[in-house]
Design goal:
Two copies of one chain form a homodimer. By secondary structure, chain A is α/β, with parallel strands linked by helices. Chain A contains eleven helices and eight strands. Chain A has an eight-stranded mixed β-sheet, sandwiched between helices. In chain A, helix 6 links the parallel strand 7 (128-133) and strand 8. The two termini of chain A are 45 Å apart. At the A-B interface, strand 8, helix 7, helix 8, helix 9 and helix 10 of A face strand 8, helix 7, helix 8, helix 9 and helix 10 of B.
């Protein structure tokens, strides 16, 4: 299959090399020529302009800084009629929606890709790219796209859906969990305990987290928050105690305070004798909690 | 080996059964007799009072509601001279310190145990109990205690050290990370995307989290925050974008806001071109950040 690729930074190069390894005929373009030599050596054709790159293949993957840069570069390409454009820039759901409208207005089908991987993970079993937008394009191209990241999926026809999952997992979950670990380590240091004592429990706690997140999704889907394990009241009392211990040794404990506030809000809303997953009911602002 | 156990709730019973399976001669006591029958059937001796339980063995494991209840029950036991007392109640580092002082004042050596496991995990490879206090007691008893939870460790001679690690891992990290996942799922719902679309990325993101936490500890130990990956400035810009996306669909995003505040504080303190782990430098209140 013929594929073009605009942008050969770390991620673009990783994508191009993986495509070449999987037998695609790849045309690459980059604003500066510095990173093109290794790709040419690996067998890629080098285009002299974005336009000649897009013209060379039915499918173009865009791996540029953001949506604005992607649009500026594609504007140099004239009509996109009959093409499939895949943009892997990181951005918000709204940016993906605007970009999709713009691309489709120029006659192409659009897939938005949100990459959950570092460049070195591209082409491996432990990477994922979520796609959203044209389901037809996904079905035509999944054989091309799955070898780039084995756990890739099509998550919805709304162009912003992939960015929603990305903001949720990379942002609201992962980045906050990572921040929480920093508050944990700062607390351990302040108590005069060696941070290295946390090392041996990491497998255990991330393993438990995986189990609980799977259980959480089951519970969100069933809506049944009853539990025979610890209730929200019990977790809230524990969080109050953890928060006090952290404050006592001079920690800001901002994440723990926000977490405690979420738990207390759930108890105040009457979920105290339910399981911890019931806290999801109180995380929207009042105007949004009205059943739709 | 002879071991006594005070308290046969879910966790106490799990500990007693695991001890019996490993060949210990176990004496159990509980305030109510309801849960004693299965243990007696498994071969445990049933004591009629806390005093006779403690007298029956050189080592007593206390599995009661909290430190106050543990002390009240041990007060019924007279002298503890020559005994080893292990208390597995959940509590703060300060409570462990006071309790240790009280136990040692009655002539016993003390081990504080913080259980990182559900009762059903006791006796398995994936559970841990952190111990702190008398190193001598740990060395004498590790052959008895390791089969209860294979990943158990002695984490320090300060009696509160096990509770410090517990507050850090179960509280500041795990409970907050779990809360963060709720904010992520609430956001996904508000965007009209099915929460089930998060399921397939859970392995990937918890796996990445394990990798990054290990790297974080290495970095905390070396103090070298330079990076060739994304800098704090870049993470802060991403967090601002995630925060805005969440607010736009009516999310409180309290944890994301606290996380963003931590990241912005780190950038303001001059760590913007360092790696994300540098945020640990700004999590204490000013009076505590003075080098000691």
């Amino acid at each position: 299959m013929d594929v073009s690729l605009l942008g050969t930074g770390l991620m673009g190069s990783a994508l191009a090399h993986a495509l070449i390894r999987n037998g695609a005929r790849v045309t690459v373009w980059n604003r500066t020529s510095a990173k093109l030599a290794p790709l040419a050596a690996a067998g890629a054709a080098v285009a002299v302009s974005p336009r000649s790159a897009v013209d060379a293949s039915p499918v173009t993957i865009v791996s540029l800084l953001d949506y604005d840069v992607a649009q500026a570069v594609l504007e140099e390409c004239g009509s996109l009629t009959g093409k499939i454009i895949i943009n892997t820039a990181t951005g918000s759901p709204d940016e993906a929606a605007s970009f999709a409208e713009w691309v489709e207005g120029r006659g192409a089908r659009y897939l938005d890709g949100a990459i959950a991987a570092y460049p070195e993970d591209i082409g491996t079993e432990t990477s994922a790219i979520n796609y959203s937008g044209s389901q037809e394009a996904w079905e035509a191209l999944s054989h091309l796209l799955l070898p780039l990241a084995a756990q890739s999926r099509f998550v919805g026809t709304r162009p912003g859906a992939a960015n929603v999952i990305d903001a949720a997992m990379a942002g609201a979950f992962f980045n906050v969990a990572l921040g929480a670990f920093h508050e944990a380590a700062s607390y351990v240091k302040a108590e005069g305990v060696a941070v290295s004592e946390m090392r041996h429990c990491l497998h255990l706690w991330t393993g438990k987290l995986l189990e609980l997140l799977q259980e959480a999704i089951d519970t969100f889907e069933s809506g049944d928050y009853t539990t025979d394990q610890a209730t929200l009241d019990i977790y809230t009392a524990a969080a109050q105690s953890w928060h006090q211990s952290m404050l006592r040794v001079g920690q800001r404990a901002s994440l723990m305070a926000a977490n405690l506030e979420n738990l207390e809000r759930a108890c105040a809303a009457g979920f105290g004798d339910m399981g911890i997953f019931a806290q999801i009911e109180v995380l929207s602002t009042p105007s949004e909690t009205t059943p739709s």
